[in-house]
């Protein structure tokens, strides 16, 4: 990778009491790259992106977002980073247009509301309350809000979980339309990762066990699909752990 990374993670550690959630993870993400973070439930995916977003402080290692520390430079990073988290909650009684205007007000140079709604195909729903949107429409609105401040880095956590195939494809199109932003996509959906991601970090038990393009992970595992590679590589890691213990 050439040039300065949009995101740099070096020897990252995070512990919750007796549970080590992230162990010595390192990777970098280039501007304009869609970078997948893939793993089983409890692998450390969400903790990793929360550390990158500055929502949690690391116990060891360092994170840089466009050269800034998400903890020390919190205000500056907030203007450069857009985040859509799986557990985010929005005010049910506000309309789509009201929520967009609310989020635009957080930034000095926000995207126009009309552009945001067009990006996620919600112009016709601008007067609809959030609680009256379908699941797919709510997810697309969350993406629009994450992009409101013209971020240079976007974090998307399990953005299509539980959605029907048509809604998933619409959200994929929204992500594919981004050109300059670095995107960190947290997912356990293999088809989503193959469709959208330039490179993938595969996590298991808080550790980085594989890193490369989807095709490189398939080749490394000696399988014929990313899903098979996922099973083979995570299974291989578990076998090594059992031998060590």
UniProtKB/TrEMBL annotation:
InterPro entries: AAA+_ATPase, ABC_transporter-like_ATP-bd, ABC_transporter-like_CS, ABC_transporter_ATP-binding, P-loop_NTPase. This is ABC-2 type transport system ATP-binding protein. Keywords: Antibiotic resistance, ATP-binding, Nucleotide-binding, Transport. CDD domains: ABC_subfamily_A (cd03263). The keyword Cell inner membrane does not apply. It comes from Saccharopolyspora kobensis. PANTHER family: ABC TRANSPORTER ATP-BINDING PROTEIN. SUPFAM superfamilies: P-loop containing nucleoside triphosphate hydrolases (SSF52540). One of its GO terms (biological process) is response to antibiotic.
